[in-house]
Design goal:
Distance between the termini: 32 Å
Structural class: mainly alpha
Order of helices and strands: HHHHH
Bound molecules: fe (ii) ion
Shape: elongated
Number of strands: 0
Helix content: over 70%
Number of helices: 5
Largest sheet: none
């Protein structure tokens, strides 16, 4: 059984993952609106992955005998100045989520909650992957500097992301 404070923290983080899903779905809609369908596909897959992250927290709360409480999910931005601006936003967001995960781990360690700590370790590794994959796209976008040819090449590449 989890204590009340941990239950609240896990519920709060589930909300952050739901927000991530919402943010990336909004980015997908933005990319669709500027006809970059490969980018839109990549973001749509990412949105689904974030939903799966939220559900891991949901399931964990239940498995530990806690009570899930769903909160309001903030509205994400709907518009970005460029594909680079959107991916830079995504990168900043993942850095923020990494900070939240690290704080949860610190709290679990401090309260000697080994089960929660073990659960969170998957997310520690996942955040390394998330930051790396988003940053790789940021760097590619910087490289092509908004040239249509370069953007189309990246769009084609991102369109090949497995739907997971
Ligand atoms: Fe996530
Ligand atoms: Fe991932």
């Amino acid at each position: 059984m989890i204590d009340g404070r941990t239950q609240e923290a896990l519920n709060k983080h589930a909300n952050a993952e739901f927000y991530s899903s919402y943010l990336y779905l909004s980015m997908s809609a933005y990319f669709q609106s500027i006809n970059l369908t490969g980018f839109a596909h990549w973001m749509r897959v990412q949105a689904r992955e974030e939903l799966a992250h939220a559900m891991k927290f949901y399931d964990q709360i239940i498995e530990r005998g806690g009570r899930v409480s769903l909160q309001v999910v903030d509205a994400p931005a709907a518009q970005w100045d460029s594909p680079l601006a959107a991916f830079e936003d995504a990168y900043r967001h993942e850095q923020k989520v990494t900070g939240l995960i690290n704080q949860l781990v610190d709290d679990a360690v401090q309260s000697k909650d080994h089960a929660t700590n073990a659960f969170l370790q998957w997310f520690v590794a996942e955040q390394v992957e998330e930051e790396a994959s988003v940053d790789a796209i940021v760097q590619k976008l910087k490289l092509v500097g908004g040239s249509p040819g370069g953007l189309f090449m990246i769009d084609h590449h991102l369109g090949e992301r497995a739907s997971g």
